[in-house]
Amino acid sequence: MCKDMSPLELAIQFHGHICPGLLMGVRAAQLAMDQLSLERDRDEDLVAIVETDSCGVDALQAILGCTFGKGNLIFKDYGKAVYTVIDRSSGRALRIAQLRRASGGTAGQRYRELKGRTDLNQAEQEELEQALQDLFEEIMTCPYEELFNWKEVRVDLPPRAHIYNTLTCAGCGEGVMEPRAIKSGDRVLCQPCFEVQKGGNTDV
């Protein structure tokens, strides 16, 4: 991705399209950068703990540089639009929670109604595009206070990413990261093969 792109452009390129969830993620990332005086991460100095796997997380990855591959994006499957951004260098952390009323107006409701359908006529398609445009203007110009609650919090810094040995699963023959491998008798198994074995099928 081009380093000269705006945060919004980075997020759209990473995610593939514009949607309200992505835009909320863009604003959350910008809020974190403003409040913690951050620049985009280069070497795991930032950590993002996300409590959802929805579109907004892609914006945080693109804008903040926190990714699964670098080990500085931590996913907690709570189903909440909540993001905690940590700056290792300062030890500061900001917890950002999206307000339920954000994007909940007429445009948001109509967008959700139309987006879930596959049989839109021309007029409805134009209405969907207008609703998205209205949401874009609303989300990108709205004061942070109308979109989020946020506060600085104390968190235990997670360890930096570690490179582990790869073991060979005795069941499927595929490589498995050592701390994720399971010892079963005198064999080493990956999680899927271990689950098959537990189910009574030992032919793994």
- The CATH architecture of the domain at 7-102 and 142-152: 2-Layer Sandwich
Structural class of the helices, strands and pairings? alpha+beta
Biggest beta sheet attributes: 5 strands, mixed
- As a percent range, the share of helical residues equals 25-40%
Secondary-structure element order, N to C: HHEHEEEHHEEEEEH
Distance between the terminal alpha carbons, to the nearest Å? 42 Å
By CATH reckoning, the class of the domain at 7-102 and 142-152 would read Alpha Beta
- The shape is globular
CATH topology tier name of the domain at 7-102 and 142-152: 60s Ribosomal Protein L30, Chain: A
Low-confidence stretches: none
- Radius of gyration based on Cα positions: 21 Å
Q: Report the strand count.
A: 9
Q: What is the topology, as strand order, of the major beta sheet? A: 2-1-3-4-5
Describe the protein in words:
The protein is α+β, with helices and mostly antiparallel strands and 204 residues long. Among the domains are: 7-102 and 142-152, 60s Ribosomal Protein L30, Chain: A (2-Layer Sandwich), CATH 3.30.1330.130; 166-198, no CATH class. The protein is 36% helix and 18% strand. The protein has helices spanning 7-15, 20-36, 56-64, 106-115, 122-141, 191-198; strands at residues 46-50, 73-75, 82-87, 93-98, 148-152, 166-168, 175-177, 182-184, 187-189. The protein has a 5-stranded mixed β-sheet with strand order 2-1-3-4-5, covered by helices on one side. The longest helix is centred in the middle third of the chain and has 20 residues, at 122-141. It starts with 6 loop residues before the first helix and ends in a 6-residue tail after the last helix.
